[in-house]
Amino acid sequence: MTLKPEPLELQCPSPEHCVEVARCILNHFPQSRLVLLEGGPGAGKTTLVQAFLKHWGVSEPVTSPTFTLVHTYHNDLGQSFAHLDLYRIHSEAEAQEAGLSEVIAEPHRAILVEWPSHAPGLFLDIPHLHILISQEEGGGRHLRVEQRN
Questions:
Q1: Beta-carbon-side half-sphere exposure of residue 82 (alpha carbons within 13 Å)
Q2: Nearest alpha-carbon partner for 45 in 28, 62, 59, 24
Q3: In the chain, where are the structural domains located?
Q4: What are phi and psi of 53, to 5 degrees?
Q5: Is the dihedral of CA 124, 101, 66, 50 positive or negative?
Q6: I want to staple 142 with a disulfide (CB 3.0 to 4.6 A). Which of 6, 109, 126, 134 is the partner?
Q7: For residues 52 and 143, what is the distance between their CA atoms, to the nearest angstrom?
Q8: Three-class secondary structure of residue 20 per DSSP
């Protein structure tokens, strides 16, 4: 029997600290291949995605795929990463039609998903890391990170 790590509560005082926060998350949950990021507009989801990808060695600019739904990145080791933004998706059927279930099923890449609540059925049977980002007074962020499934 494998035990899940306890949820992790983190503070991120500024965007400059995001790479350190991403490193801490990945050290606590080293087997995470699928990462779901929840939070309101402006919570810092894309900033945290940028931090994860920087930690994994991606050197190219990372932008939100709000209109294209998916951006793919690679590091110098040839590892592949997908960044999905489901903000414009309104149903699981729409996500399926866009081919997102195939992207998520790809076993040899890490996948970071913003707005996963727009198509939650895509993730029901897949172990994933869930990150809830809350804005705090003063501009910092609170993150609750937990392994699910």
A1: 23
A2: 62
A3: 9-148
A4: -65, -40
A5: positive
A6: 134
A7: 14
A8: helix
> From CA 66, how far away is CA 12, in angstroms rounded?
24
**Residue 10 token pair:** 């983190």
Q: Which two tokens stand for residue 121?
A: 């059925």
Contact 34, 130 (CB under 8 A): no
Contact 9, 144 (CB under 8 A): yes
Full-model pTM: 0.93
59-83 pLDDT per residue, tens: 999 999 989 999 999 999 999 999 9
CA dist 69 and 86 (Å) reads 6
- Whose CA is closest to 50, among 41, 37, 39? 37
What is the percent of the chain where pLDDT is above 90?
Answer: 77
CATH code for the structural domain at 9-148: 3.40.50.300
Residue pair 55/88 in contact by the 8 Å Cβ criterion: no
Both tokens of 33, joined, read 């291949």
- Residue reference for tokens 């998916």: 70
Give me the helices (H) in 1-148, please: 18-28, 45-55, 92-97, 100-105
What's the angle, vertex CA 104, arms to CA 114 and CA 42, rounded to 5? 5
